[in-house]
Amino acid sequence: MQELTHYVNGEKVAGTSGRFADVLNPATGEVQAKVPLATKAEMDAVIAKAAEAQVGWAATNPQKRARVMMKFGQLINEHMDTLAELVAREHGKTLPDARGDVQRGLEVVEVCMGTPSLLKGEFTDSGGPGIDLYSMRQPLGVVAGITPFNFPAMIPLWKMAPALSCGNAMILKPSERVPSTSLYLAELLKEAGLPDGVLQVVNGDKEAVDAILDNETIQAVGFVGSTPIAQYIYGRAATNGKRAQCFGGAKNHMLIMPDADLDKAADALVGAGFGAAGERCMAISVAVPVGKETADGLIERLLPRIEKLKVGPYTAGEDIDYGPVITAQAKARIEGLIDSGVEQGAKLLTDGRGLTLQGYENGYFVGPTLFDNVTAEMDIYKEEVFGPVLSTVRMDNYEDALNLVKDNAYGNGTAIYTADGDTARDFANRVNVGMVGINFPIPVPLSYHTFGGWKKSAFGDLNQYGPDAFRFYTRTKTVTQRWFSGIKEGGEFNFKAMD
């Protein structure tokens, strides 16, 4: 049995708590490793070491920090297959999907190679007689990232790359279900030239999270996970005077208008709904066809596509469409929600419950599931399923369909398929969701934009990656300076304008 470690001060360090979590192979249900769970004392000691290392890193000029990101990006490319294997083995993703996980994180690293231009301040010449003003962006100090199981490479990279590029030290607490990718990335960062102690990877559970939230040295916390935990972390971090950006759950809708290309819409829904076994915060889990003819045509096209999907372990080849869900508890919860959909009157068209694969009978596989005639009152609609389940909610007209999205508690992503530009523009302007796709199913912005939801999908003022990340991980300091010319006499006791 492999026993994993923390990564502290540039070295693999064994845990001292005596507590461990099982790291499972979701395809077989077997325990493949044990990961140590840090105590508060362990976490506090690691944070103190990070604070020491951060001073020198902050004093390193932005060009040199950017060069570390350049080398890091090169190493990620060179080790892409190894990283994808780690992601697939612990999460269960197919290898193509795992490589995509790494690639989307790498794209944020690539943006951070341009850090010097992103950290430029502002300057005002002669704001008053002999007076200049300038602002500069300075690092916060020690920050923390708490990342989820569903993107073992991408989201840690979304957190660490901007935070480190800005001159901070980072404490990264990855999900204890998928720790190996973060540990490996830390080793690559050291090889890229990151000084020891600037990135510390500490594994743990709630005790470690609370230690981060309560430690006075930590200045900011970034989190991705479920909405209840996002709200908890945001509240506790804010109470303790920390910045926080906490991203939670989602219920993403795709509207399909009567003028849409139904074949393209069906293809998009299958990929967006069932890819990664639906374990994506940007997965489309609700199809909203407008009008009976649209709905009937969409279902007619979805069924054969869904029936052809291949479910299996990542080791079965590159043509597998998706793998298992993360745990037995996740599988049971998904199948329980499918049960509730049937009980509450939704029409079950494909049933993914009870799927077993020869040789993988103990794996956490759920087959692709399609519901029709779902209503907004049903649990299968109201709850985030986070599994390979697509619900169809039929609407008679565009306004009702739009209001369905607007009334939903979540606001991460949404999409519309239409051939009409006016409808598309109206939808994009009026919908209260953070990321919108027009004839594009999963509208995750490119890395030089920024990622963030609205409503109960996000807590905090600034989004992930892109320009917002550099705002989040720095403080602005503004300096007002005067250089005297000639002799000045007497003090001024009033607060007057700079005229």
TrEMBL record:
Residues 16-479 form the Aldehyde dehydrogenase domain. The keyword NAD applies. It is an enzyme of class 1 (oxidoreductase). SUPFAM superfamilies: ALDH-like. It comes from the Bacteria. Its EC number is 1.2.1.27. It holds the Pfam family Aldedh. GO terms for molecular function: methylmalonate-semialdehyde dehydrogenase (acylating, NAD) activity. Keywords: NAD, Oxidoreductase. Coiled coil: none annotated. The keyword NAD applies. One of its GO terms (biological process) is thymine catabolic process. NCBIfam families: MMSDH. This is methylmalonate-semialdehyde dehydrogenase (CoA acylating).
